[in-house]
Amino acid sequence: MHKLLSTETGAQVFMLGNEAIARGALEAGVAFATTYPGTPSSEISLNLFQVSQETDLYFEYSVNEKVALEVAAGAACAGLRTMCMMKHVGLNVAADPLMTLAYTGVKGGLVIVSADDPAMFSSQNEQDNRYYGKLAGIPMLEPSSVPEARDMVLYAFELSEKLCEPVLLRTTTRINHSNAFVALGELAPVTAKGRFDKDPMNWVTIPAVSRKLHARLLERQAEAARITDDSPYNRVVGQGEWGIICNGVSDNYVADAVKDLNITDKVRILRIGMSNPMPAQIITDFLKGCTKVLVAEEGEPFMEEAVRSIAQAAGLTLTIQGKADHLFSQLYEFDPAMVRRVIATFFDLPYTPPAQTDLSDVPPIPARPPSLCPGCSHRATFYAIKKASEGMDTICPTDIGCYTLGFMPPLSAGDFSLCMGASVSSGCGFARATDQKVIAFIGDSTFFHSGITGLVDAVFNNHNLTLVILDNGITAMTGHQPNPGADMEAVDLQGYGQVSIEALVRAIGVPHVTTIKPYKVQKSIEAIREALAFKGVSVIISQEMCTLYAASIRRLKKRAFYVTDNCKNHRDCLNDFACTAFYLEDDRVRINPDSCIGCSVCAQICPENAIRPLKSASTNVA
Amino acid sequence: MDTIRLIIVAVGGQGNLLASKVLGEAALAAGVPIQMSEIHGMAQRGGVVESAIVMGDARSNLISDGEADVLLGFEPSETLRALGKCNGQSMVITNLSPVPPFTVAIGNGVYPDLKQLQTLIKAKTKRLVAFDALSLARQAGSVMAMNMVLLGALMETQLLPLTADHIKEAISTKTKKAFVDINLKAFDLGAQAARQVEA
Lengths: 622, 199
Description:
Largest sheet of chain A: 7 strands, mixed
Largest interface: A-B, 53 and 57 residues
Strand content of chain A: 15-25%
Helix content of chain A: 25-40%
Oligomer: heterodimer
Radius of gyration of chain A: 27 Å
Number of strands of chain A: 25
């Protein structure tokens, strides 16, 4: 039995924030869940995927976040309790359905989880998705701790059904990837089948209907405004005259700082857990008791601006500050010492910063950047592309996935990246705007996510570009989630279809399509040369299973190679290919037999044929 | 209850997250409040994994620069890199068996000299316990048990509000059955090593 299905009500379980969110959904009787994987949200869906294999829960990895939210909308409008989770930038993709879903509303509870990533531990930006709650006009909740994340999921489902609106649960990495104890609640029974009642004048958003629905949304917002002023998640602690308003993880840093600065009796703290609509009455009452107020929130001045506006409406003129040069920054994440410093500065308190260690005499420590795995097929593809395009003036837009790491030398495969799917479409622009040869890179999952439309554009507008689809059969970067190209029977899961990338690309009408096996170096280079020479749209599909995934499903036939004495130390292997299984010993290149998977690419490029397989027989590696 | 702040740094695959989980379970058994956060982006691609563990009454689960009471390093150069988290009163425990970054392995960059590394850490903190945890793990029966060796050394410092028994109980119930004996042996070897280093 999956650990999140434990029926030991009351038991304290040490869990990850994302597990707590998944558990909350199960305690709420979630019947339907959809997602597109993205850090830091991925473990919510991984757990629900596993749970769905032993319960009535329907779970799917959708092709992208827009599709995930639309599939979820169908289920929720048919009356099922539904959850849809994604990383913050995923909500950009799902923003189109979100805005109008707020108009149609839902029948069964719909909770949308947006996992924001302040400080960009694994993201291309640190946008603050609280504005989506406000933009769509739907209720929004922000937990400050792991157990509260679980509690809020339950509350969010109730709120969603009460208001007939989707509810946004907005987390940050430090909630998703924190561990704490959660006391298990009871698992609710699941209603797995819904029914949709036809009512076109309420569900079909033609202008005449939508004008009515927008008015109804405003009525629901007014109801939400009454609820937020009464919500247990908007709470005041303390009775001092100095006010601090905070949300999410900043609540913890503020609580510790107030204790450490010994000002508990001077301060009152308003923690806002339901942040859309903002609780105007609670805030007005709070401001009336304060002489000055500091707003402590990571990201944008979302609450600060609302609080100022509420103060203005109430005719209050006290100082309200948050984001300022000497106070909080909009950049990155907060930490306890920084919050303590800002509180001391704002309230003019004596403050000694933590004793910083003088590191001026510490020698430079070599960086440890993430890199492509030993034997990764992406490295082989990039090597072949580089050889085939030698002497060409190229632009290589790349995309979001493991293969983004190929931008580092010596492969240097990646000149521009924006968002999911943008390699193809930005490549169309580069191709038109310049005379440079465009070679765009995209992974299989990202191609399904949003690369297809760009490719259709390229064919229709006849752009001169080569698209390389790095097809490793799985969504590797986020932890091996399936995508529409994945072979589900390989992992004993039945009832799935499988979409052929090659058939799809041909059906779009791409005039030049080649499939290569990147471990076959010379053949790949020749095929790529031909594709690059083609004027118009050409697609190269480079097929080889992700080595980590192959190992995890026992498909990896590992056979390590070694460098023989024939080596003349040209170092083409190291300088041009740079597999992470190589190391130097006594100024000679060696291959770590534990890391080498036996892709044999280095053996094929060695000018002396000095790299040979070890004698031991092939072994299957677990 | 006094607050104790512990940073654990490791390279992906060294078992840092399991060590943190064992500490969490032991804290539950001991009735000690615990907050923990992890950064494990790209761990499988050779990146750094960092856990911040706060025991006691504090609510924050992040540790600011200069505020760690204990730094537990699974890889010597990563221990050195995290030294900014420490202050003059901090305790540092580190494995001395290096996992050179790829840049160093191919000759671009120099791995810090291990003697100089220890001298630097000693000069900037209160105490350093440094030993080859990898060979002790091998001695216990598996290189995978290095995390348990380091937990043993950590507990020997008696800085955490937990006992060795709490940890051993958590190892017995929360690590894979086939590895429990090796893990317990590794834990004891780590504790023994810490005693010898300090003596």
